[in-house]
Specification:
- There is one protein chain.
- The chain has 81 residues and is mostly helical.
- It has one domain.
- The protein has three helices and no strands.
- Helix 1 packs across helix 2 and helix 2 crosses helix 3.
- The radius of gyration is 12 Å and the shape is globular.
């Protein structure tokens, strides 16, 4: 997948996860950062743990959103503790 596609999917995933977890996004760079890290986490979970691949744009976006939600949940737990 190209760098532009990673940035687009990362931005969308971060924006979606931000709206789900806290009701708003994190700005353009924050959304991209959360989404790209989330894509790495989601890709690992889907491929290594569940044994599933993510295919196409929607599959990549879904796994990135799941990973971003997990990342935001972990960050919220660390901030509280």
């Amino acid at each position: 997948m190209g760098v532009i596609a990673w940035l687009i999917i990362g931005g969308l995933a971060g924006w979606i996860a931000g709206h789900i977890m806290r009701g708003g996004g994190f700005g353009l760079l924050g959304n991209i950062g959360v989404g790209v890290v989330g894509a790495v986490i989601g890709g690992f979970i889907f491929k290594q743990i569940l044994g599933m691949g993510t295919g196409g744009f929607l599959g990549s976006l879904f796994s990135a959103v799941v990973g971003a939600l997990i990342l935001l949940w972990i960050i919220s737990k660390v901030k509280r503790g």
